[in-house]
Design a protein that fits this description.
Radius of gyration: 13 Å
Low-confidence stretches: none
Structural class: mainly beta
Shape: globular
Largest sheet: 7 strands, mixed
Distance between the termini: 40 Å
Strand content: over 45%
Length: 114
C-alpha cells in the first residue's frame, strides 16, 4: 500500500510563493509519473503539473512560467514551487502517483488572498 504525504499548503497573498511537497511512502513497485492536480470549489479537478520518471514535465497553461515541478527520486518526493500566485490559484491541491496503480493524496489547501 502506498500513501502520499503532502505538505506546504497555506494562506498567502497574491504575488507570493509557496512550495508543496509530496512524499510517497510504502511499498512502491512502479512509478511512471508523479504530479499535482487541484480542485477549486464548484469546479472539476484539473491537472496542474506532472513529471515522469524520465524527467518530462507537463504544465497546465494557466501555471506555465509561474509553477515548477521537480522531484527527488531517492526520496520518492515531488515538489511544486508556486510563484506569482493569483487568487484563482486557490484550491485544494492533490498529489498523484501513477504506476501499476494510481494513488492520490488527501489534499492540501492553498488559499491566495487579494
Amino acid at each position: 500500500q502506498v500513501q502520499l504525504a503532502e505538505s506546504g499548503g497555506g494562506l498567502v497573498q497574491a504575488g507570493g510563493s509557496l512550495r508543496l511537497s509530496c512524499e510517497a511512502r510504502g511499498i512502491i513497485h512502479s512509478i511512471n509519473a508523479m504530479g499535482w492536480y487541484r480542485q477549486a470549489p464548484g469546479k472539476q479537478r484539473e491537472l496542474v503539473a506532472t513529471i515522469t520518471t524520465g524527467g518530462t514535465t507537463v504544465y497546465a497553461d494557466s501555471v506555465k512560467g509561474r509553477f515548477t515541478i521537480s522531484e527527488d527520486k531517492a526520496k520518492y518526493t515531488v515538489y511544486l514551487r508556486m510563484n506569482s500566485l493569483k487568487v484563482e490559484d486557490t484550491a485544494v491541491y492533490y498529489c498523484n502517483l501513477q504506476g501499476w496503480v494510481t494513488y492520490w493524496g488527501q489534499g492540501t489547501q492553498v488559499t491566495v488572498s487579494s
